[in-house]
Amino acid sequence: MCVAGHGSIVHLGTDNGPPPVAQRHNGRMNERARHWQYDELPGVDLLRARYVRKTFVRHTHENFVIAAIADGVEVFHHGGGDQYAGAGALALVNPDTPHTGRAGVPEGWRYGAVYPSVDVVAEIAAETTALRGTPGFVDPVMDDPYAVGLVHQVLRAADEGNALAADTLLRVAVTRLLRLNGGPMPRREVPTAGTRIAARARGVLEERMARPPSLERLAAELGTGPFALLRAFRDAYGMPPHAWLTDARVRRARRLLDLGTAPSEVAVAVGFTDQPHLNRHFSRIVGVPPGAYQRERKNVQDRG
Predict the structure, then answer these.
(1) What does the pLDDT read at residue 300?
(2) Which residues have a Cβ under 8 Å from the Cβ of 245 and sit 6 or more positions away?
(3) For residue 187, what are the contacts with CB-CB under 8 A and spacing of at least 6?
(4) Which residues form the HTH araC/xylS-type domain (predicted)?
(5) What's the pTM value of the predicted model, to 2 decimals?
């Protein structure tokens, strides 16, 4: 995944609704989400949301995910199986770890999340724990109502513009989670021929994001077969090349939106056919449409 009083609750079905407040009503559906930053918590994204029919496709985050479930159940595929996080539990995902997300019960789930950067978590770990190396979370689900409460208090303090409380509570929450469920991040395996091919393919896709080659052409350029490349890429990055490319495009789109680039221009720059195409994929990964995402960033910059 703006200071107090300036966030927006966004209409999740489109990016053309009237800011700053919009809401979707459709029978039992009443989905809301706010994805923002607080300038007194650098390196941390914040999210508060309620989803019913929302489905997050397989994706990754550059930051850690610390999602505190308030009501309902979230199901997310992680590490080869489905994980279930209900009220009073936290969903914990390390950076660059593929995962999905969806409701585990008909009424959906309501949660608050903080997304601290690798540097923020490493700094806290070095000061308050005995962990060495790059820290991470061991188990993806942790039942801890107290830590859930801390996360929601961080969000409330950010809403209220209480920098001292927000920073303090974030550090207390991360320290607790690392002490109870922390460990060194897994070391990368020794490169094999397959991982080297996958890395080269990733480099090509990053360089030619707007006009990527087909799987067959990419494999030919790298001197291998399409299915061999597909297997190697999945083994290395946890998803096939086309899914990884969509994820990478959304990451790059976020950076461009942060710089103030118009969503329509961002769509073309990262290789989507048009803004609706960007809207669809962005919402399925970030949780809000790109226009709402950018408005929050602009709010922070305007008051910076």
Answers:
(1) 56
(2) 205, 209, 212, 271
(3) none
(4) 199-296
(5) 0.87
HEC per residue, the chain: CCCCCCCCECCCCCCCCCCCECCCCECCECCEEEEEECCCCCCEEEEEEEECCCEEEEECCCCCEEEEEEEEEEEEEECCEEEEEECCEEEEECCCCCEEEEECCCCCEEEEEEEECHHHHHHHHHHHCCCCCCEEECCCEEECHHHHHHHHHHHHHHHHCCHHHHHHHHHHHHHHHHHHHEEECCCCCCCCHHHHHHHHHHHHHHHCCCCCCCHHHHHHHHCCCHHHHHHHHHHHHCCCHHHHHHHHHHHHHHHHHHCCCCHHHHHHHHCCCCHHHHHHHHHHHHCCCHHHHHHHHHHHHHCC
* Distance between CA atoms of residues 139 and 287, nearest Å: 23
Assess contact for 69 and 85: CB atoms under 8 A. yes
Closest among 118, 133, 119 to 183, alpha carbons compared: 133
**Count of beta carbons in the 10 Å neighbourhood of residue 44:** 24
Q: How far apart are CA 283 and CA 254, in angstroms?
A: 12
Please check whether residue 74 is in contact with residue 94, taking contact to mean a CB–CB distance below 8 angstroms: no
Lookup result for tokens 């680039």: 261
Lowest mean pLDDT among 21-35, 38-52, 227-241: 21-35
- CA–CA separation, 239 vs 232, rounded Å? 10
Q: Is the dihedral of CA 255, 258, 260, 265 positive or negative?
A: positive
How far is the C-alpha of 99 from the C-alpha of 57, rounded, in Å?
8
For the CA atoms of the chain, what is the radius of gyration?
19
Number of neighbours of residue 296 by Cβ within 10 angstroms: 24
